[in-house]
Amino acid sequence: MPGINIKKERISLAHGAGGALTSELIGRCILKYFKGAVLGALDDSAVIDLPSTALIFTSDSFTVNPLFFPGGNIGKLAVCGTVNDILAQGGDPLYMSMNLIIEEGFSFSDLERIMASMAREAEKCGIELACGDTKVVEKGKCDGLFISCSGIGRKVLNISPERIKTGDPVIINGTAGEHEAAIFNEKSGMFSTKMRSDCEGLTGLFNAVKRFGDKIHFMRDPTRGGIAHNLHEIAVKSGKSISLKGKDIPVGRNVLALAELTGMDHLYFACEGRMLIICSPDISRSVVSALKKTGYTRASVIGIVERPSGSELTVEMKNGKERILKELDFSLTPRIC
Amino acid sequence: MPGINIKKERISLAHGAGGALTSELIGRCILKYFKGAVLGALDDSAVIDLPSTALIFTSDSFTVNPLFFPGGNIGKLAVCGTVNDILAQGGDPLYMSMNLIIEEGFSFSDLERIMASMAREAEKCGIELACGDTKVVEKGKCDGLFISCSGIGRKVLNISPERIKTGDPVIINGTAGEHEAAIFNEKSGMFSTKMRSDCEGLTGLFNAVKRFGDKIHFMRDPTRGGIAHNLHEIAVKSGKSISLKGKDIPVGRNVLALAELTGMDHLYFACEGRMLIICSPDISRSVVSALKKTGYTRASVIGIVERPSGSELTVEMKNGKERILKELDFSLTPRIC
To answer: How much is the ipTM here?
Structure first.
């Protein structure tokens, strides 16, 4: 009887109503994958013991479309986004919350795939799911699944825009724009070859650079708006100018081809597994070498912080001319995260 | 030119895309109302200093339908739900995050009304908005507005189900089931008189009872599933039985009428401004008196914790007979929170 099977394999409104069926959903799709002790108590809130007093608190919603894409899915992306936001504030990730808003009729198997990959990424990144909430809305009232996460971390690096100095190098751990290119390609079907998102939690990268301590001045994960929009914002906040060398910015062949075909600029494409690191000039080579040893073989110095000039951010092109990079009004592809 | 006005008064996809238009939206609709210093930095994350080590971390999504209802709206409800979850763990509320998922075309003026009432309730409850995120999805891909919040509090009362003892009284601060009755009535239009939700953040109540310290054994805000479902869960977790006296449970005339007309049990109706307090018997009268002085004139002892019997939760009816109250499979009204 197919009707019955479909019912069992699909999430209903009652699964989000807070009673026994919600407990079943949580047991079947969430606790099966997340085994932390704090979450296990299954209270409305978690009580957590923290040794330090300076905490990082971050929050993001994820509405990425499509839910599954080469290199990741909405759940993996939610963990990476939460973890990378904490790291970019100089914090060790500790705990996260997860709120699910599920459309009635969503399949249990898709939810399980998403939860399993979230749990894997969370374990890899050293963050523990502490609390969460599950709502189900009627068919047509959301787009499959939305996930909201908050994260808590302990600040261990003293980084802030005020610490950025003239002469500091700007380092990135890999190629530009792969997340947005992958989502754009999935939506448009422009290239038949799959383009893979760089979606990745960067705790390993952070652990490799945090030994440089106070010599790390600033970090930022260049998500929406990519390298250009984010560095523009950093230049404004620090009251400096930043100049990039185009030839030194690593970029994949497919991303470049997509940018050229569409007339878009890959420097504005969102990344989800990249970190911009601004540090003291004397550790520049050591940081790049530490990143390479951690597996980021294309880590590079891509620019330098300069005294404030008329324009906040410039890039030197192949022909030696300078191009001014401005703030982005809105991102190029809708619902990339 | 009405077309242009409509465009200006409606939120577009570009307002959620992370660029200059997102900043405009945040400035116009959020920062205008929330003036905390932590949020003002407008970073992706907040850095917060905390004097204590035992933290409460809670998280909820709000998908209530309708967005506006007598006594509140989705934003006020989000603050109350977050604050009351922290209080119910014995914590002083400190910081919260706010993630907005907005449907393209949602009106700026509705968003402003919601933000203004969130900010008012947050100030009243002593919680500061620390960080947040704004996403906009295409028309038809969400239901107006969803809000996800996480909250952080400092644990100041040592409450847990294990501390509940035989003989402890069960106290409530007011009438049962008004939130769910209000939402049900809005959806069904059953009564032409407005029924008002009890939606309220209970920091004032918490401040009035926390001086009783260790003599407060347990607290719980009876949201989804109401008094009955929540007390059933508490009985199971504490390994005790709880018996209620029906005639002592305060309930409004309208709520009772709605329950009788629909055949539903108001003891399972969600409350959003009520707290169940289980305490040492010797402070029972002092707690009720403290609640009354704080404005909760209908505060009452509604039951008592007993040695484990065959049934976790019972209520004595008017005719003197006992009725067994079971766990609720799913809540009676969809999308009440």
So the answer is: 0.90
CA atoms within 13 A on the CB side of A222: 34
CB of B295 within 8 Å of a chain A CB? The answer is no
A322 and chain B in contact, CB less than 8 A: no
**Whether residue B46 has pLDDT greater than 90:** no
CA–CA min distance B203, chain A (Å)? 16
Domain ranges of chain B: 2-155, 161-324
The rounded mean pLDDT for chain A is 91
* SS3 of B68-129: EECCEEHHHHHHHHHHHHHHHCCEEEEEEEEEEEEECCCEHHHHHHHHHHHHHHHHHHCCEE
Q: What is the pLDDT of residue B1?
A: 32
Interface contact flag, A18 B331, Cβ < 8 Å: yes
Closest CA to A45 of A120, A97, A113: A97
Strand B169-172 to B276-279 pairing: antiparallel
Q: Which residues of B touch A58 (CB under 8 A)?
A: 44-46, 97, 131
- By CA distance, what is B332's nearest residue in A? A17
Q: Which of residues 11-30 of B touch A (CB under 8 A)?
A: 13-14, 17-22
pLDDT at A51: 63
Cβ separation of A329 and B19 shorter than 8 Å?
yes
Nearest-neighbour CA in chain B from A272: distance (Å):
14
Q: Which of B138, B236, B330 has the most A C-beta neighbours within 10 Å, making it the best mutation to test the interface with A?
A: B330
Tell me the average pLDDT across B266-292. 98
Between residues A285 and B6, which one has the greater pLDDT?
A285
Q: Determine the distance in angstroms separating the CA of B23 from the nearest CA of chain A, rounded to an integer.
A: 9
**Which of B47, B330, B334 has the CB atom closest to A54's CB atom?**
B47
Residue A214: pLDDT over 50: yes
What class does CATH assign to A2-155? alpha beta
Confidence (pLDDT) at B37: 56
Ranges A94-98, B3-7, B254-258: which has the least confidence: B3-7
What's the pTM?
0.92
Q: Determine phi and psi for B211, rounding to 5 degrees.
A: -65, -15
Interface contact A275, partner B, CB < 8 A:
no
Collapsing DSSP states into helix, strand and coil, what is residue A276? strand
Fold entry, domain B161-324: Phosphoribosyl-aminoimidazole Synthetase; Chain A, domain 2 (3.90.650)
Q: CB distance B89–A143 less than 8 Å?
A: no
Q: pLDDT exceeding 90 applies to what percent of chain B?
A: 77
pLDDT in tens, B156-176: 999 999 999 999 999 999 999
